[in-house]
């Protein structure tokens, strides 16, 4: 801890004997003392080093004590220095004048040691208290100033935050309006979950992980050409999974569905249909690196007098279709190709697969949201669990199989929020 600096006292008296007595007396008490024999010398001493206390004689030649005190009180740097007057005079007028010019106390000669020391100690203590109070007031004023500045900055910040919140609310409102519009577009493009086809039992299911997803399903009954009215009935079913979420996914989904609807009735081979959609989508996806996984099946059910039907398919990046035979066996149809919109059609193409279908056989198209579904422990539903679920699923009809698959995924996930869209289409011959 730093030791307290001793108080500095200036003694002003034209009498050397008085100076000597006071100097010795105060030095004995540990004060720093500087004597001055005249008023001008006292003022010069004050300019060099500000004292903590002045003992000032009244009657001095040239400049008396009253005049010295007036000089001290007129200067902002010295006006707070306490002045104790010294005089042999005992006149009331002198005492009144001493207080009027700024003195704080009065000691008469001859000096009484105890009196002088008591008054000096008392006024030095008062000065220290005043200095501490002054510092505290200065610190308080500084704190008040800083708080006012902080409040001003806080008000500015709050004003900016209010404006930002207003703008965010406005943007959020616009975004919600756009998302609502996108959802309505998606809903308008999504056909009923069950097409009224007597020849096939088709059940569709699609649920987005959020308000706007990228999954979709589509189907169409392919009309036989006019030249061959005896041509067997064929049906087209597709499932798509657009990368991303929100408005971009909704727009790409809408474009893909529109392209599918405009092309599918041409009766093209599955590989050719995917080729044409990929070619058309590339201009939409090349800048933002989006794409659409898309699997397309063309199904010819068993006709009158036929024991078997057929399914012809091409796949662009989606999970290959599962086949569940009427005997309960399950297999994955190995048909694969690049997603639509990436522009690899000429390099990789879209290989086709054709299988025979017996009455009671089921085809299952499913997006990868089912495989990626997580439970509370962070485990994925995964491919093996999906295949096992399909194996044990009852397949009396398409709806029963679909319900079993949905329930199995839901039980596995529990209360966890899905992290991707899930789309399932079950087709039973």
Record keyword descriptors for this entry.
15 strands; rod-shaped; 429 residues; single chain; Rossmann fold; five-stranded antiparallel sheet; Phosphatase 2c, domain 1; 10 helices; five-stranded parallel sheet; alpha/beta
What does this structure look like?
The protein is of the alpha/beta class. The protein has two domains: 8-135, Rossmann fold, CATH 3.40.50; 190-428, 4-Layer Sandwich (Phosphatase 2c, domain 1). It contains ten helices and 15 strands. It has helices spanning 16-28, 39-48, 65-74, 92-100, 113-189, 246-264, 270-285, 345-348, 382-392, 398-413, and strands at residues 8-12, 32-36, 53-57, 83-87, 105-108, 201-207, 215-222, 234-242, 292-300, 309-316, 322-324, 330-332, 352-357, 362-366, 422-428. The strands form three sheets. A five-stranded parallel sheet has the order 2-1-3-4-5, with helices on both faces. A five-stranded antiparallel sheet has the order 6-15-14-11-12, with helices on one face. The protein has a five-stranded antiparallel sheet with strand order 7-8-9-10-13. The longest helix is centred in the middle third of the chain and has 77 residues, at 113-189. The chain is rod-shaped. It starts with 7 loop residues before the first strand and ends with a strand. The model has no long low-confidence stretch (mean pLDDT 89).
**Helicity range:** 40-55%
Chain-averaged pLDDT: 89
Radius of gyration: 50 Å
State the fourth-level CATH superfamily of the largest domain.
PPM-type phosphatase domain
Order of helices and strands: EHEHEHEHEHEEEHHEEEEHEEHHE
- What would the principal axes of the Cα set say about the shape? rod-shaped
Kindly, what is the distance between the CA atoms of the first and last residues, rounded to a whole number of angstroms? 96 Å
Strand content: 15-25%
CATH architecture of the largest domain: 4-Layer Sandwich
């Amino acid at each position: 801890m730093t030791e307290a600096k001793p108080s500095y006292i200036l003694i002003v008296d034209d009498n050397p004997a008085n100076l000597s007595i006071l100097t010795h007396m105060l030095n004995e008490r540990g004060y720093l003392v500087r004597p001055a024999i005249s008023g001008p010398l006292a003022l010069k001493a004050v300019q060099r080093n500000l004292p903590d206390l002045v003992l000032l004689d009244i009657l001095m030649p040239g400049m008396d004590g009253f005049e010295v005190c007036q000089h001290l009180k007129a200067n902002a740097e010295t006006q707070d220095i306490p002045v104790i007057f010294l005089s042999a005079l005992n006149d009331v007028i002198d005492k009144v004048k001493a207080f009027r010019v700024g003195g704080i106390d009065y000691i008469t000669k001859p000096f009484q040691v105890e009196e002088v020391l008591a008054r000096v100690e008392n006024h030095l203590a008062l000065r220290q208290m005043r200095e501490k109070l002054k510092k505290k007031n200065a610190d308080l004023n500084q704190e008040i100033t800083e708080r006012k500045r902080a409040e001003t900055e806080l008000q500015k910040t709050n004003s900016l935050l209010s404006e930002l919140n207003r703008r965010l609310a406005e943007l959020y409102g616009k975004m919600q309006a756009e998302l609502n519009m996108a959802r309505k577009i998606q809903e308008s493009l999504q056909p009923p979950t069950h097409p009224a086809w007597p020849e096939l039992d088709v059940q569709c299911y699609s649920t987005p992980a959020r308000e706007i997803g990228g999954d979709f399903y589509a189907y169409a009954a392919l009309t036989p050409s006019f030249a061959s009215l005896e041509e067997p009935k064929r049906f087209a079913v597709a499932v798509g999974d657009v990368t991303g979420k929100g408005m971009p996914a909704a727009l790409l989904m809408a474009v893909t569905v529109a392209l599918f609807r405009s092309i599918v009735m041409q009766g093209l081979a599955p590989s050719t249909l995917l080729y044409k959609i990929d070619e058309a989508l590339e201009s939409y996806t090349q800048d933002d690196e989006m794409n659409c996984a898309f699997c397309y099946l063309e199904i010819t059910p068993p006709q009158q007098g036929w024991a078997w039907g057929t399914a012809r398919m091409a796949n662009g990046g989606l999970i290959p279709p599962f086949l569940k035979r009427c005997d309960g066996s399950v297999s994955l149809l190995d048909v694969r190709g690049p997603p639509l919109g990436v522009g690899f059609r000429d390099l990789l193409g879209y290989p086709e697969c054709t299988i025979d279908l017996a009455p009671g056989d089921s085809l299952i198209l499913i997006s990868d949201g089912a495989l990626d579904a997580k439970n509370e422990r962070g485990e994925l539903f995964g491919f093996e669990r999906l295949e096992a679920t399909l194996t044990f699923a009852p397949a009396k009809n398409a709806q029963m199989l679909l319900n079993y698959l949905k329930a199995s995924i839901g039980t596995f996930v529990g209360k966890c929020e899905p992290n991707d869209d899930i789309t399932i289409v079950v087709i039973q011959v």
